[in-house]
Structures are given as structure tokens and as C-alpha cells.
């Protein structure tokens, strides 16, 4: 036995040592390659390859290094030698085609790829290998042709749909991209989410939405399926065609018979898009088509929210008899919900909306306060608490009860139900109250920790207020105090007096850094008073007289919004948005201006 062991050691010991030496040399060559030193890696790989020419790892390292050194003829030579030993290795032959393409010999590349396809006739892996090599050379048209030939030869109309969809997207052929992905959907409806994600990338491109929409309509003309209808709903919403989306949603409901759930889900989506007319119809239909649905209270609440938003669009001036009449239906709907579902989230939210309407739109501050107090009574615990406290704080501020307002925000900042962002917001409101009271040092002390936490939602507002106070307090303290007084008047809904104060600041302190801010406040509150000419005059003053202002891009954007949403002059709105793009291309408003130009021109439809 001892003799046998000694003999084995004598036989395999040197071999094991040789293997260790080869591995060490291979790792050394790899390190050179990783450092980009291919000249030093090549001779080591060459020695290893000569010692074991059948080793694919050594061959591949040699081939890879030759390519990096642009020695394509050498790469082709060793690849052909290996191919002679493996004549049916289609992937290897396909790679030889890529090597020819890199060397500039397109005819030889095509010949190699044809040879690869011939070696694995009707084998889907062979077509993929060739197409992948063609893709690596950015020969997308050739890769598409390879896949289409493969589909025909194999006789499977669905094969390579994913690959072709990906390739067509590269060459911006939106229609064929959509057709291929819809083939994939026809084959397997479980891939809906994946397909929508791929199509979303197409829809985001110029001319992508109409092309994909047309292809989906083609498919629907052949057969109406639920996945296709869902795609249509999504595409209609992407193109702001909410009425068409609603009709498609109704068709889906008729096919799935979800007892109204389908329409309710659609209503929720449309509501989030601020399309309240269609959302209201959808909420009502979901209730009509269902029998005691679990979503009933939520659908009724959603409908009431739509009524509130639509009332706001047609409401008269806040605080008038006509404004009360405008919101009477919404208040009635909320009251019914609060009565039918007391001590529930729906009931508490309905009560809160009544308080919100009374506070914001009717300026019935005492009535709003009573409603908010009742919310705290019916929902004394949970996420409603900080929300209601914030609204009560606003009411107390509007009533000039600043001490009580500060105490309310302090309570909100320490509430166990407040999130971190809500606590930060409460502290920011407390700093604003100190600003209104001209206690600037205390305001800055409260703002300091907020400006150090850049993750908080209120951090940007805190930074702006901190900078605003610091910039103006030394040389223009009277102007700063008047600005605080004017803003407090606005919080108290005395917009006319606020506008006069802000305009007075511009007249008295034209050199103050805050003057352009005062003019923008004049414009903001003039718009709320529907004094559009005064707003436009204030904007133009900023542009004409304050050429160093950092607010010029925002001013130009707001001029465009004034034309767009209030004066309803589409052409002047487009021109004003275009000025944002031409004069302030790096502005934070540039992307939104570009989107709105497309909407106004109808490009997105």
C-alpha cells in the first residue's frame, strides 16, 4: 500500500504543481487585463493557450485580448481553428461574423452569420445567437431580419416577440414595437404588467402615444380582451382622453361583472388626475351597478369630493351668499356621510371637508372651528389629529389669535400621532407666527434646525424664510415688518388690504431686496380677486424694473399661467411659455413649460 501511495504521488504531484502554476499565471494575466494592460496580458494567455488549446477559457481570453488590441485577423484565425474542431457551434461561428464586422469586412460577416444559421437550422437558440452578435455591432436592422426569418422558418408566429419589440424600440419604430409586445400579450396575458412597462417607455417618446394607441385599436378591432381594454384605458388617460377611458372601463366592467369594483377603481384613478367631472360620473355608476358594495362609503365620499372640486371651479367670490350656494350640495353630501358613518374614517373625513369648505371657501371661521372640534371629538386618536390641529392653527392665525395659534401648532408638534414631516410643518408655522409678530431673532432660532434637515418637506420653505429675513432685516427692517403685516392680512382673508400693503412696499422701498417678492404677492392676490390686469401689471414691473431679480423665470412662468388658466388666451400662453424656454433654459420651470406647450398645441393627443 505504501508503495502504491508513493507511486501516485510521484505520478500526480508534478501535474498538480503544473495546474497551480497555470492558475497563478491565468490570474496574473487577468489582473493585467483588468488594468487595461492588454499587451502584457496577451503573451501569458498565449502561453496558456499553447499548453492547452482545447481549454475554452484560455481560447476566450485570447480572443477577447486580440479584440481589445484590434488584432481582428488573429482573433478570426484562432476562432476558425476552434470552429474546425466544433463545426456545429453556431455561437462560435456567429461570433466570427462579429469579428469580421469589427474588421470592416461586412460581406464576410454576413457569410459567417448565414453559415451559423445553416449549422443550426430551425433552432431558436441559433437565431438568438446570430441576432445577439448583430445587435452587439449595432446592426439592428440585420438583427430584426434574422429574428423575422427565424419566426418564419420555425413556424411559430409568437416566437421572438420580446426580442423584436426591444429591437424595434431601438430604431424608434413605435408601431411595430407595440405590435410585437401585443403578440406577447396575446400569447400570455399574465405578462400584462411587463408589457405595459415596456410600452410606457415608448409612449414617453415623441409620437409614441398615437402610434401605440393606433396599434391597440387595431387589436381591439380583431378581438376585445380585458388586457387590451386595460391598455386602452391607460393610453386614453395618458392622452387626457378621460371620456374615452371611461367608456373602455365600462366595457371592462360588463365583461368582468365586478359588482362595480372596476368602475370604482377607475374613478379613484381619474380623481387623482383631477378630472372631476368624469370621476363623479364613474363614482355614481359604481354605486348604481353594485349591490351593497364594500366600497360604497368610499365611493360616496369620492363623489362628494368631486362635487366640492367642481363647485370650487364655478364658485363666486369667497364668503358671499353665492359662494355658500355653490358649496351647498357638497356640504349636504358630506353631512349625510358624517351622520350615517359616525366614528369611522369616512365620517371623520367628511366632517373635516365641511370644516375645510367653511374655512377656505366660505370664510366662516367660527363655523369651521366648531366642525374641526367635532372631528377631534368623533376621531380623538389617529392620523386625523395633526391634520385637524393644522387647520385650527390656520383659523386662529386668520382670526389674529397668534398666541393660541402658536399653542395649537406646539400641540401638533408634540402629538404622538404626528409624522416627522407634520412635526416639522408645525415648527415652521410657529416660526411664521414669530415673523408676523416681528420677533425675528426667535423666528430665525426656530428655523435653524429645520434648515439643517434637508429631508423634511418644509426645509425649502424654511430656507427661503430664513434667507428672506436675513437678507432684509439689517437695512430694510421697516419694509420687512410691513411685508409681515401684509402677509398676515392675506392669511386673514383681507386680500384687498394685503394688496395695498404690498403695493405700498414697492412704492416706498424700491431698492429693498424684498420688493420683487412684494410685487409677486400683488399679482398672486390680485388673481384671487380676479383683478387680472393688476396682476399682469405687477408681473411686467418685475420683468421691466428688476432685471437682477432671481424671480424672473418664475414671473415669466406665472404670466404664461395667467394667460393659460385665467385669461384663456391659448396663443399668448404658448408664446409666454416659449419665452421661459428661450430666456431661462436652465430654469426649474422649463420642463413644465415644455409639457404645457405640448398640451396647448395638442401634441400629446
Describe this structure in words.
- It is elongated, with a radius of gyration of 35 Å.
- The longest helix has 33 residues, at 2-34.
- It is mainly alpha-helical.
- Among the domains are: 386-473, Alpha Horseshoe (Serine Threonine Protein Phosphatase 5, Tetratricopeptide repeat), CATH 1.25.40; 506-601, Tetratricopeptide repeat domain (Serine Threonine Protein Phosphatase 5, Tetratricopeptide repeat, Alpha Horseshoe).
- The protein has helices at residues 2-34, 38-51, 56-68, 72-85, 90-103, 106-119, 124-136, 140-154, 161-170, 174-187, 192-203, 208-222, 226-238, 242-256, 261-272, 276-288, 296-314, 321-326, 328-340, 345-361, 365-378, 384-398, 402-414, 420-436, 440-452, 459-472, 477-491, 495-508, 515-528, 532-545, 552-566, 570-583, 590-601.
- Helix 9 (161-170) packs antiparallel against helix 10 and helix 31 runs antiparallel to helix 32.
Assign the CATH architecture of one domain. Answer: Alpha Horseshoe
CATH superfamily of one domain: Tetratricopeptide repeat domain
**CATH-derived topology of one domain:** Serine Threonine Protein Phosphatase 5, Tetratricopeptide repeat
- List low-pLDDT spans: 8-13
Top CATH class of one domain: Mainly Alpha
Structural class: mainly alpha
Number of strands: 0
Sheet with the most strands? none
Number of helices: 33
Question: How large a portion of the residues is in β-strands, by DSSP E?
Answer: under 5%
pLDDT average, as an integer? Answer: 91
Radius of gyration: 35 Å
| Global shape | elongated
Helix content: over 70%
Q: How far apart, in Å, are the first and last alpha carbons? A: 88 Å
Amino acid at each position: 500500500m505504501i508503495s502504491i501511495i508513493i507511486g501516485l504521488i510521484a505520478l500526480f504531484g508534478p501535474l498538480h504543481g503544473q495546474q497551480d502554476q497555470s492558475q497563478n499565471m491565468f490570474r496574473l494575466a487577468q489582473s493585467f487585463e483588468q488594468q487595461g494592460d492588454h499587451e502584457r496580458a496577451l503573451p501569458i494567455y498565449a502561453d496558456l493557450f499553447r499548453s492547452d488549446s482545447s481549454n475554452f477559457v484560455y481560447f476566450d481570453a485570447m480572443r477577447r485580448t486580440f479584440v481589445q488590441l484590434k488584432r481582428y485577423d488573429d482573433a478570426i484565425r484562432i476562432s476558425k481553428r476552434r470552429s474546425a474542431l466544433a463545426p456545429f457551434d453556431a455561437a462560435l461561428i456567429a461570433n466570427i461574423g462579429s469579428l469580421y464586422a469589427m474588421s470592416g469586412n461586412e460581406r464576410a460577416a454576413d457569410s459567417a452569420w448565414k453559415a451559423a444559421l445553416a449549422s443550426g437550422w430551425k433552432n431558436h437558440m441559433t437565431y438568438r445567437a446570430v441576432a445577439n452578435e448583430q445587435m452587439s455591432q449595432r446592426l439592428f436592422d440585420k438583427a430584426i431580419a434574422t429574428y423575422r426569418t427565424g419566426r418564419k422558418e420555425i413556424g411559430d408566429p409568437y416566437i421572438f416577440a420580446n426580442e423584436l419589440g426591444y429591437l424595434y424600440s431601438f430604431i424608434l419604430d413605435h408601431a411595430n414595437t407595440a405590435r410585437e409586445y401585443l403578440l406577447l400579450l396575446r400569447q400570455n396575458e399574465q405578462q400584462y404588467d411587463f408589457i405595459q412597462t415596456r410600452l410606457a417607455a415608448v409612449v414617453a417618446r415623441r409620437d409614441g402615444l398615437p402610434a401605440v394607441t393606433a396599434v391597440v385599436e387595431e387589436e381591439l378591432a380583431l378581438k376585445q380582451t380585458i388586457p387590451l381594454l386595460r391598455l386602452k384605458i391607460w393610453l386614453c388617460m395618458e392622452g387626457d382622453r378621460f371620456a374615452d377611458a371611461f367608456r373602455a372601463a365600462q366595457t371592462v366592467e360588463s365583461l368582468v361583472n365586478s359588482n362595480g369594483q372596476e368602475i370604482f377603481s377607475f374613478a379613484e384613478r381619474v380623481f387623482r388626475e383631477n378630472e372631476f367631472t368624469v370621476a363623479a360620473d364613474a363614482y355614481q355608476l359604481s354605486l348604481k351597478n353594485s349591490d351593497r358594495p364594500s366600497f360604497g362609503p368610499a365611493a360616496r365620499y369620492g363623489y362628494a369630493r368631486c362635487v366640492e372640486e367642481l363647485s370650487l371651479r364655478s364658485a363666486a367670490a369667497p364668503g358671499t351668499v353665492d359662494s355658500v350656494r355653490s358649496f351647498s350640495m357638497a356640504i349636504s353630501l358630506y353631512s349625510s356621510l358624517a351622520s350615517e358613518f359616525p366614528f369611522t374614517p369616512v365620517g371623520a373625513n367628511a366632517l373635516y371637508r365641511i370644516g375645510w369648505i367653511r374655512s377656505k371657501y366660505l370664510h366662516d371661521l367660527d363655523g369651521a372651528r366648531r366642525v374641526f372640534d367635532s372631528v377631534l371629538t368623533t376621531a380623538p386618536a389617529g392620523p386625523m389629529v395633526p391634520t385637524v390641529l393644522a387647520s385650527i392653527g390656520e383659523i386662529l392665525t386668520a382670526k389674529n389669535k397668534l398666541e393660541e395659534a402658536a399653542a395649537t401648532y406646539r400641540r401638533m408638534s408634540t402629538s404622538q400621532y404626528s409624522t416627522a414631516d407634520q412635526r416639522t410643518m408645525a415648527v415652521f408655522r410657529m416660526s411664521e407666527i414669530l415673523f408676523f409678530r416681528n420677533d425675528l431673532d426667535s423666528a430665525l432660532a426656530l428655523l435653524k434646525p429645520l434648515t439643517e434637515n434637508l429631508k423634511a418637506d418644509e426645509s425649502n420653505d424654511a430656507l427661503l424664510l430664513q434667507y428672506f429675513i436675513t437678507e432684509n432685516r439689517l437695512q430694510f427692517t421697516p419694509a420687512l415688518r410691513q411685508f409681515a403685516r401684509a402677509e398676515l392680512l392675506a392669511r386673514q382673508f383681507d386680500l384687498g388690504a394685503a394688496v395695498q400693503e404690498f403695493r405700498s412696499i414697492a412704492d416706498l422701498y424700491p431698492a429693498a431686496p424684498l420688493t420683487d417678492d412684494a410685487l409677486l404677492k400683488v399679482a398672486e392676490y390680485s388673481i384671487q380677486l380676479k383683478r387680472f390686469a393688476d396682476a399682469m401689471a405687477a408681473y411686467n414691473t418685475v420683468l421691466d424694473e428688476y432685471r437682477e431679480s432671481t424671480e424672473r423665470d418664475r414671473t415669466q412662468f406665472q404670466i404664461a399661467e395667467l394667460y393659460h388658466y385665467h385669461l384663456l388666451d391659448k396663443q399668448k400662453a404658448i408664446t409666454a411659455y416659449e419665452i421661459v424656454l428661450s430666456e431661462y433654459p436652465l430654469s426649474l420651470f422649463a420642463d413644465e413649460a415644455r409639457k404645457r406647450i405640448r398640451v396647448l398645441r395638442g401634441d400629446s393627443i
